[in-house]
Amino acid sequence: MATRIERRWTGQAIGSAGAALLRRSAPACLPRPERAPVAPASAPLLVGVIANGRSHRNLKHGMRLDHWPDVAYDAPETFEALEATLRDYAARDIGLLVVNGGDGTLRDVLTAAARVFETLPAMAIIPSGKTNALALDLGIPQDWTVRDAIAAARAGRFVSRAPIEVLRGDDPCPAARGFLFGMGGFVRATELAQSTHRVGAFNGIAVALSLGWSMAQTLFGGAGNVWRRGTTIRLGEDGATPATRQLYLLLCSTLERLPLGIKPFGGPRPGLKLLTVEAPPRHLLRILPAILNGTRGSKAVAQDFTRSDPAVMHVTAGEGFILDGELYEGGELTLRAGEPIRFAAA
Q: Domain DAGKc spans what residues (predicted)?
């Protein structure tokens, strides 16, 4: 059962970690057959567009929903309406699913699509949110349009990325699917990022401001400071016996490039990647460059953080987690990389 912050589906990041939580039952998963090939350029390419009218750029400039043959549009305002639209697109057997929104919009579409499509079609992202990490990873221009995405798909220009699937307890169906998962300090840093959004800072600028403020909170906080105290997390990787740890930060992703060129997981590579930082961080000023640059640092510094590439992670925590900008309740979780998705790319 997924627990989400937003009462309405907006596809945007959370406003506050203290917002009221809503519960929503998750339908059963659909099976995962072999992926069907994308329609060749000579055949009609049926396109379904999900547009988030509340995304940053769409609010500012409008969604510019140009209509032409073989393209269907919808801008659902609730998660239930989103599922209904996707069921309609699945019935039409669309060959390209285009998401016009930010990372949160894409997260919700991927989560709903897993319950709707037997075979997920190729996808494309139109970056119009406050954060557009996947678009940056794929090299999508900020001014990309639906027409550009269709042209790329027809030309066969695709890049594959596997989403993170978050499962609860023994439920085999993912409660959510996204690309950037974090606990501990990442939850508090995301709250700070929301503050930077309110003063007009987005994307890389928001990352830089929230990172700087997080550092200040950690460096100048006392022993009981929530940043330094960390979060109690029980963590096990790839069948290893889970161990209870006090972590300053837990971060994992399937992205290969992150905003500002930071490399918390080391060099770019596919698959699920994990970074953990022990609490309290003993050498924060010295480990930060190593984490941001993707290096190991000195032997003493390297003992304070760990990088790994688990196939499956089991995480149990009383505190919540962030997935692509939204806060979810903690609990007994399993994380894994899902089936790779082909995204149209420039």
A: 40-173
Instruction: Find the helix packing angle between 103-113 and 79-92, rounded to 10°.
Output: 60
Q: Is the pLDDT of residue 90 over 90?
A: yes
CB 14 within 8 A of CB 326: yes
Q: How many CA atoms lie within 13 A of 20 on its CB side?
A: 3
Q: For residue 174, give the nearest of 28, 313, 324 by alpha carbon.
A: 28
Integer Cα distance of 226 and 330 in angstroms: 17
Q: What pTM value is reported for the model?
A: 0.83
Instruction: Output the six-digit token pair for 1.
Output: 């059962």
pLDDT in tens, 22-39: 233 444 566 554 444 444
Residue 91: φ, ψ to 5°: -65, -30
Domains of the chain: 2-161 (3.40.50.10330), 180-323 (2.60.200)
| Spatial distance between the Cα atoms of 102 and 5, rounded to a whole number of angstroms | 17
The DSSP symbol for 260 reads: G
Burial of 307 (0-12, 13-18, 19+ CB in 10 A): middle
Amino acid residing at 80: E
